[in-house]
């Protein structure tokens, strides 16, 4: 029961973050009442009660300290919080299901650190930049690279470390905004792939349907699909002007 409570809470928080990010990218605008409701819930559903003090006490002073060495770091923009929440939900699910011999609390702490580091970096780029896609992807590669080191798999760790460099460099060296919002089409493709994998695992996986639902990959796919469908439904219902 407790695990399902946590999963449903994750769905709700993920839905909220996707709704806010869709508005930030200009993909959709909401009715005034719905937008006001989203703003009121930021401290709770947007994890503002955690991220605001963390930003003021740790993140901004750290960025100022780095700037003191004449390293030009742009101002941190608000969309980093939505990117962080979505990336953290995905990476936390991976940490919980795929940590293997590494203790779960260690994997979750590592996932939090990797997500925070790279999503703050993404937040120094405009919301229409490809950094919003590539830099959070680097957090996944960094997480699994360190996880492989803890498991003693140095070859896998080095391969993933190269991915960290590639993803981060592709995002942070981008100096131009793309012509369209890059987040929404990427989310649609990602959601479609996850949904296809989920349906395939449920239809053709081993064991009964109940056993297939307990599979870590299927459970993660179900969580992602539920959150994305919920966000799409609410965005469609409260868009102004209508999406369709």
Q: How would you characterize the overall build of this protein?
A:
The chain has about 240 residues and is mainly alpha-helical. The chain has one domain (about 1-240). It contains 11 helices and no strands. The chain has helices at about 1-25, 30-40, 40-45, 50-65, 80-100, 105-125, 130-150, 155-170, 185-205, 210-215, 215-240. The longest helix has 23 residues, at about 1-25. The termini are far apart. Mean pLDDT is about 80; it is low at about 175-180.
Helix percent band: over 70%
Q: How much strand content do the residues show?
A: under 5%
Reading the helices and strands in chain order gives HHHHHHHHHHH
Mean pLDDT metric: 78
Rough outline: globular
Low-confidence stretches: 175-180
Output the radius of gyration.
18 Å
What's the assembly state of these chains?
A: single chain
Largest sheet: none
* Domain module count: 1
Quickly give the structural class. mainly alpha
Distance between the termini: 38 Å
Number of helices: 11
**Number of E strands:** 0
Task: Put the structure in a nutshell.
By secondary structure, this protein is an all-alpha fold.
Give short descriptive properties of this protein.
244 residues; mainly alpha; 11 helices
Sequence-ordered SSE layout with sheet pairings:
Layout: H1 2-24, H2 32-40, H3 42-45, H4 48-67, H5 79-98, H6 104-123, H7 131-151, H8 154-172, H9 183-204, H10 209-213, H11 216-238
Helix pairs in contact: 1-5, 1-11, 5-6, 5-7, 5-11, 6-7, 7-8, 9-11
